[in-house]
Amino acid sequence: MLHTTPSGPAAGHVPAPGVPHAEGVSNDDFRAAMSRLAAGVVLVTAFDEDAGPHGEDAGMTATAFVSVSLDPPLVMVSLRNGSRMDDLLDEQPLWAVSVLSESQRHIAGRFAMKGRLSDRLLFEDIPYRRGEISGSPLVGGALATLECRTEQRVVAGDHTLVIGRVLSVGLPSAEGGPLMYFRGRYRHLS
């Protein structure tokens, strides 16, 4: 797996909110501009075999998820540096993505909570099956599911871009539309 790290004097420097970067854009202005870009919502999952006596599932909501290549099939997700998912995917390469439907807003909100101690309880009443390749939870009723293997990690500012090769695809539900995120809120197409 290839790791790429930033270089130069600004690598790792993040100004305080409201304080402009050297380029003149403040965190608040940048966040406001990017909130106007509608994005699909996914649940990224992985199985942490080293957590506890029987391992533990981990999950996080993401809106920075894109298709990168058709041949080979590659996707990319952006993870906050130092987050549990970033740390886990740095240690083991297999993970999964469930593309959430508009009826799964509660799942997105649950896994977007900051400061939670354990993901074990978050999966408790969510229907899912375990991926045959990754061992990761694949959410029932999702519009699509993908199992992936990390091909490359690129540190980009305060996030790491994880590029994964898609190993399997499932289309569990053709019903409903996608869950979207726009201007700081979950929304649906209509």
Task: Describe it.
With 190 residues, the protein is mainly β. The protein has helices at residues 27-34, 84-91, 105-111, and strands spanning 2-4, 39-40, 42-48, 56-62, 65-69, 74-80, 94-99, 128-130, 137-139, 144-156, 159-170, 179-182, 185-188. Strands 1, 3, 4, 5, 6, 7, 10 and 11 form an 8-stranded mixed sheet that branches. A 3-stranded antiparallel sheet has the order 2-12-13, with no helix packed on it. A hairpin with a 7-residue loop joins strand 3 (42-48) and strand 4 (56-62). It is globular, with a radius of gyration of 17 Å.
Question: Can you summarize the main beta sheet?
Answer: 8 strands, mixed
Number of strands: 13
Order of helices and strands: EHEEEEEHEHEEEEEE
Structural class comes to mainly beta
For the termini, the CA-CA separation is 41 Å
Low-confidence stretches: 7-12
What's the average pLDDT? 86
Which of globular, elongated, flat, extended, rod-shaped describes the shape?
globular
The tally of helices reads 3
What's the Cα radius of gyration?
A: 17 Å
Helix content: 10-25%
Kindly estimate the percentage of residues that lie in beta strands according to DSSP: 35-45%
